[in-house]
Amino acid sequence: MHIQELVKSSRSFRRFDERVEIPEKKQRKWLEALRYIPSARNLQPLRYVVVRSFEARERFFPLLGWAAYLKGKGTPQQGERPTLYVVIGYDTRLSPSLPAIDIGIAAQTLLLLARADGYGGCVIGSFDPEKIKNLLEVDDHFGVGLVVALGKPKEKIKIVPVTGSIEYYRDEKGTHYVPKRALSELWIKTL
Ligand SMILES: Cc1cc2nc3c(=O)[nH]c(=O)nc-3n(C[C@H](O)[C@H](O)[C@H](O)COP(=O)(O)O)c2cc1C
């Protein structure tokens, strides 16, 4: 698949087939690839914690906020929850302030790597970092950036043009619609 198609097919998936675990080999391959992403001043402050066991996942899941626009209806049900979480954190001794751009690059790269292998996921920024830190039992110098929730997607997602609202929505069959702005709105000019 060309990268153009990969980016398009890499939607924010929030419903998964929970019977399908992500092989540890794939997880290692994806994390290995994250060594090569760009980093401001080449500081490479990012650190990762993987939440993999069923028991840890069950404790981790309630800490995350899902699909705010769907007002509770977008939270994955039992059986359709992610099977792997990667917490993207950073070493606060290397980067005292949040290295937000590095974190964003890592999150999107991870989503694309997973998608290329037939999996998918969703970036989660809605959580209380202190609760995440407590559960992960990490050192004080671990700052929490983003969570990437991953699994085998089990939902239909369609991209639609923005007509009024940018809020995503679902129909009665559960298809998830994501309004995206037209290129003509995004691309201001070429000098
Ligand atoms: C920085 C960031 C934080 C996000 N946080 C959440 C979140 O907490 N919960 C959630 O369900 N989705 C979250 N998302 C996913 C967005 O809702 C999603 O990207 C958006 O609806 C567009 O859908 P798409 O990714 O399929 O294009 C986040 C995305 C980004 C980039």
From TrEMBL:
Keywords: Oxidoreductase. InterPro entries: Nitroreductase, Nitroreductase-like, Put_nitroreductase_C_bac. GO terms for molecular function: oxidoreductase activity. Residues 9-152 form the Nitroreductase domain. Gene3D superfamilies: NADH Oxidase (3.40.109.10), putative fmn-dependent nitroreductase like domains (2.20.180.10). The keyword Oxidoreductase applies. It comes from the Bacteria. Belongs to the nitroreductase family. This is Nitroreductase family protein.
